[in-house]
């Protein structure tokens, strides 16, 4: 109801009701993107019935899509209509390599609806460094508390003999986690061979000490092995909330400014609705949750970004913030593939293990530590404080190496064991920038892999070490041949060449709206507010200053949980 419709019924009651309905016509938050971070944040904010949230999601609801719900079908959704299929730029190293289009979720749940669902938490020391980067609200105590709010851990049945530590998990969260069905005795053999070769067995990597080979949980309902997403956990069971509105097939293009004098104030967000019509959703606060390649383009089209770059595209600068779209770090991985002596009876859900080891440990036992250290050099485009944080973590011996084992079953063929190994925190960083002011155009995604030689050398030693794990009993007894790379690829140089030519993207990019100081190229502050704006925030994988040990998915949920706490404390709607 608008004020003008008050009419003549000027009783106190009418005024009272009118006042509350006027308030309700101005949405408190418009959230761009109903993905991993977006729906988790929207859920927590709408716990208060007086707070109204409108989520704009470019995709549909994904209901009934078995490619999403059935975790055994991971990958089937890639290239279908629930995947953005972002084109990528040609890589500098090796020259001319182009990996083509890469997946990102375009559906409620976002990438949590199409990802590998592996759920891993970083090292407490990662968050000591996040806090040291000028973010006092993001230290390990606060971060882990927020992360535990996300998780509802389902311990495995006793006879699965999977190790875990109950207190390393959250138990009252909205996202169920559980282990895939085990494939004994193969997985015991993997763990035992890692240990036999001098690696470490960690009982649980989720409690802040991910420093050995351990079982990894999935975002997964244990009862029927279906995938848990931010939509199944944070939206569908809560869609009855009147203050939690979602508009599907609505693609945001830019921020509409109420004023750009002084500190710019956003009025709302322009979007293209499902009929192709341009609309505006106004709100007191604008939160971008479009993901690592979704949020920076909206900022840039709205005049927030590198002024020179925007001028070249005819976009008027509103806030000169050259860090927008920079600092993009992606984990790469290359497979070491072995054939078993037999076809194993595997369950429908592929079991996985995560292997963590510190780089120093990897190198002390096989590589040239002095060479590694000499290659540990800050790339030109890396922010100085991030490099300092990397140095500290490196000196502390935190884990830099991640890997998954994957058991692959093909009809009539021996089962294959594929280890995907790589560097958790590579030094090379890339970018994501718009190339036109067109609101619906894809940005240019430049991964920029291997511009730091450190990354190549570290990856090579990692793969060689994985190979060495596989050559000792008990695992070696089960292996009949190495399939990839060919057996003559043994030296670190040859493994390095294999790695850069054959590695795949981890689909774990982060950092394009980094939470670091503005003068160092930061985009958001400790409260996730975009520097230089009055009421624009980013809450997704873009804000991570660097990749915590492990994979990003669980961290995005934790960021959203923590953002909700910070927003509630500030009441800025
Ligand atoms: C194939 C794949 C496998 C992965 N495997 C794992 C794994 O096993 N473990 C792990 O930890 N991590 C994994 N990840 C990474 C992890 O899923 C992501 O880091 C995380 O989900 C990102 O969350 P987000 O909120 O930043 O973005 P997203 O979850 O991608 O959400 C962004 C949302 O915004 C919407 N959107 C974007 N632009 C607009 C716009 N302009 N208007 C309206 N809506 C918009 C999108 O449609 C999407 O719904 C994987 C990712 C992929 C793609
Ligand atoms: C599921 O994936 C398969 C293989 O990619 C595809 O052919 C099919 O159309 C997908 N189903 C849906 C509902 O998108
Ligand atoms: C565990 O016990 C259940 C119930 O007895 C049985 O069905 C299942 O096969 C067992 N699993 C393993 C891994 O031993
Ligand atoms: C799996 O179990 C959940 C919770 O019990 C249920 O909501 C869902 O419909 C089930 N999915 C399938 C495919 O059986
Ligand atoms: C939304 O905000 C813009 C900019 O302040 C304003 O011009 C417009 O009238 C508003 N729309 C609605 C529906 O309130
Ligand atoms: C801003 O963009 C211009 C033009 O693309 C580029 O030359 C410059 O290096 C960028 N500045 C920063 C700080 O990234
Ligand atoms: C792997 O084993 C080979 C042969 O024993 C050895 O030379 C090499 O240093 C080992 N590499 C690693 C990383 O452990
Ligand atoms: C495969 O190797 C394991 C371990 O050595 C052995 O127990 C098993 O019998 C072998 N299977 C076949 C079919 O050779
Ligand atoms: C390995 O052998 C193949 C086939 O003979 C050959 O083409 C390739 O160059 C060799 N690679 C190395 C690193 O020796």
Automatic annotation (TrEMBL):
The protein's superkingdom reads: Eukaryota
This chain belongs to which protein, by name?
Uncharacterized protein
> Organism source for this protein?
Vararia minispora EC-137
């Amino acid at each position: 109801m608008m004020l003008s419709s008050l009419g003549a019924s000027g009783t106190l009651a009418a005024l009272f009701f009118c006042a509350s309905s006027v308030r309700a016509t101005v949405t408190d938050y418009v959230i761009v993107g109903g993905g991993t971070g977006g729906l988790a944040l929207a859920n927590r904010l709408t716990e208060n019935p007086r707070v109204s949230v409108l989520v704009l999601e470019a995709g549909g609801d994904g209901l009934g899509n078995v490619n999403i719900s059935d975790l055994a079908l991971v990958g089937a959704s890639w290239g279908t209509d629930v995947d953005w299929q972002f084109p990528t730029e040609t890589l500098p190293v090796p020259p001319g390599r182009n990996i083509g289009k890469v997946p990102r979720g375009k559906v409620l749940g976002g990438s949590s609806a199409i990802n590998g669902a592996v759920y891993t938490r970083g090292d407490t020391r990662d968050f000591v460094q996040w806090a040291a980067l000028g973010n006092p609200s993001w230290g390990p105590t606060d971060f882990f508390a927020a992360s535990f709010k996300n998780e509802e851990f389902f311990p495995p049945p006793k006879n699965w003999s999977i190790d875990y530590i109950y207190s390393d998990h959250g138990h009252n969260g909205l996202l169920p986690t559980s282990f895939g069905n085990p494939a004994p005795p193969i997985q015991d053999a993997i763990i035992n061979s890692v240990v036999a070769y001098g690696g470490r067995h960690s009982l649980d990597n989720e409690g802040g000490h991910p420093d050995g080979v351990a079982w990894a949980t999935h975002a997964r309902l244990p009862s029927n092995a279906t995938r848990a997403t931010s939509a199944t956990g944070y939206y569908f069971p809560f869609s009855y909330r009147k203050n939690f509105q979602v508009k599907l097939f609505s693609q945001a293009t830019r921020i509409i400014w109420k004023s750009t004098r002084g500190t710019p104030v956003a009025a709302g967000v322009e979007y293209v609705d499902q009929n192709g019509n341009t609309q505006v959703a106004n709100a007191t606060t604008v939160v971008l949750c479009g993901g690592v390649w979704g949020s920076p383009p909206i900022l840039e089209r709205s005049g927030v970004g590198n002024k020179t770059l925007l001028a070249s595209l005819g976009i008027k600068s509103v806030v000169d913030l050259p860090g927008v779209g920079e600092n993009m770090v992606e984990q790469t991985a290359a497979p070491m593939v072995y054939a078993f002596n037999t076809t194993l009876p595997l369950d429908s859900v592929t079991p996985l293990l995560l292997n963590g080891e510190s780089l120093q440990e990897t190198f002390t036992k096989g590589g040239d530590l002095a060479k590694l250290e000499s290659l540990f050099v800050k790339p030109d485009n890396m922010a100085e404080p991030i490099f300092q944080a990397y140095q500290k973590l490196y000196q502390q011996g935190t884990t830099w190496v991640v890997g998954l084992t994957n058991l692959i079953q093909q009809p009539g063929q021996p089962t294959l064991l594929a280890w995907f190994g790589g560097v958790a925190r590579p030094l090379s960083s890339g970018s994501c920038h718009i190339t036109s002011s067109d609101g619906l155009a894809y940005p240019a995604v430049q991964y920029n892999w291997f511009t730091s030689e450190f990354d190549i050398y570290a990856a090579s030693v990692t793969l060689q070490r994985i190979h060495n794990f596989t050559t000792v009993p008990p695992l070696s007894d089960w292996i009949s041949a190495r399939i990839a790379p060919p057996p003559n690829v043994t030296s670190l140089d040859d493994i390095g060449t294999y790695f850069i030519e054959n590695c795949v993207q981890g689909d774990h990019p982060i950092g394009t709206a980094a939470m670091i100081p503005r003068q160092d190229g930061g985009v958001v502050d400790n409260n996730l507010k975009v520097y230089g704006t009055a009421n624009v925030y980013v809450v997704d994988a873009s804000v991570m200053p660097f990749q915590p040990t492990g994979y990003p998915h669980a961290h995005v949920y934790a960021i959203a949980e923590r953002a909700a706490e910070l927003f509630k404390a500030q009441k800025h709607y």
